[in-house]
Amino acid sequence: MTVSTVNTDHASAAVPPVARPAVPAHIIRDDAEAIAIAHALAAEFVKDSSRRDRERIWPVAQLDAFSQSGLWSINVPKAFGGPELSYATLARVIEIISAADSSIGQIAQNHLGVVAAIRTVSDADQQKLLFAEVLKGTRFGNAFSEFGSKRAADFETRFTDAGDHVVVSGRKFYSSGALLAHLVPIVALDDEGRAWYAIADRGAPGLTVIDDWSSFGQRTTLSGTVIIDNVKVPKTHLVPGYKGYDKPTADGAIFQIIQVAVDTGIAQAAIDETVHFVRTKSRAWIDSGVDNAWDDPYTIQAVGDLTLRLHAAQALLEKAGLAIDKAVAEPTAETVAHAQIVTAEAKILSTEIAIAATNKLFELAGTRSTLAEHNLDRHWRNARTHTLHDPIRWKYSILGKYFLNGENPPMHAWS
């Protein structure tokens, strides 16, 4: 099956790897510092976010600032020198960044999820090695999903044992962050069909990353096709990811909560844009009897409704983060299921408010808001694209089965 029109016959057609950081990343002290740093970064990221979307400009400097800020090691355990902050804080950080530029917020998702997985499934020696990389500012990308499989968890990429290393071959797509990553975790199966993270160097021979992401939304997530042609990965970097799902762990909920935070960030951005536009550019409706658009009673009601629903999603997001904290500290069937359920609830509300807020923006702001100079459609495009991850129709099913029949959610990265 053809997944790209980009010629991949020659490695020179691929995007070259980027250099590792020259200095170690900052290590955050506490939750308050993490939130403060996120706000400071967001204030810079938002400045050219519309132009980056319109012209599909890679956020190179922004990504370097983000990963060097310490926010990419936010969930590294204290035992290995990391901050080990609450997942409620982690979610808030991603939301703040995503409100400024949701593509940048999404880029961190798989990195943070892999860090969580290493904590869950790796032995102490592997944790020490890989967490040290993260604390230096090394960025994980991802090469998880495959384009033509029947289901998201069906993988054709495999590895073979070659002594002190494994050899991996396959082809991936939807590889957010891979273009500017330093290490690329590849989901590959062993001879028993078990999924591992084979964490390859971005510049490893045989690893080709192609810039062919053509979605109408989330346009600068540094995604694309990853071709894996007999790539050697040392066994020190072979992480048994399957162990995170053969018993109750919070790994799936952690991947999910970051998705939720991206969507609440998009919703926040859309509501902020609506308020700004109505207050500065929109005209009052002809029959309203008021002089200012912000005095229109229907607009007032709509903004109140959108804000209420965003706050509800944010409250569940925080609750989910605290539930994940407990499931990480005390992983049992009960704590893990609770974390999955609250995260699923948050995912439903975040999807619904992201779509509603980005759609309502144009109705409330008026025809002028559709002009190309404003590029406000990027919020709807981003929301519509990103919310396709983990469809909420299946989240409703998870909730119904849990509350009606006592059935715990399935154990995988999409739940």
Quickly describe the structure:
By secondary structure, this protein is α+β, with helices and mostly antiparallel strands. Helix content is 48%, strand content 10%.
Topology readout:
Layout lengths: L30 H15 L3 H7 L4 H9 L18 H14 L1 H20 L2 H13 L21 E4 L3 E8 L10 E7 L5 E7 L5 E4 L14 E10 L3 E2 L11 H30 L16 H33 L3 H33 L11 H10 L5 H14 L10
Antiparallel strand pairs: 1-2, 2-6, 3-4, 4-7, 5-6
Helix pairs in contact: 1-4, 4-5, 4-7, 4-8, 5-7, 7-8, 7-9, 7-10, 8-9, 9-10, 9-11
Enzyme class: oxidoreductase
Keywords: Oxidoreductase
EC number: 1.-.-.-
List its salient traits.
11 helices; single chain; 3-stranded antiparallel beta sheet; alpha+beta; disordered N terminus; 415 residues; globular
Notes on the structure:
This protein is α+β, with helices and mostly antiparallel strands. The protein is built from 11 helices and 7 strands. It has a 4-stranded antiparallel β-sheet with strand order 1-2-6-5, with no helix packed on it. The model is unreliable at 1-12 (pLDDT under 50).
Q: How big is the Rg?
A: 21 Å
**Approximate shape:** globular
Helix proportion range: 40-55%
Rounded to the nearest angstrom, the distance between the terminal CA atoms is 28 Å
- What strand line-up does the widest sheet have? 1-2-6-5
- What's the story with the biggest beta sheet? 4 strands, antiparallel
What is the ordering of alpha helices and beta strands?
Answer: HHHHHHEEEEEEEHHHHH
The unreliable regions are 1-12
The proportion of residues in beta strands is: 5-15%
Instruction: Calculate the mean pLDDT score and round it.
Output: 95
> How many helical stretches?
11
Protein name: SfnB family sulfur acquisition oxidoreductase
Domain Acyl-CoA dehydrogenase C-terminal: 258-390
EC number: 1.-.-.-
Domain Acyl-CoA dehydrogenase/oxidase N-terminal: 39-137
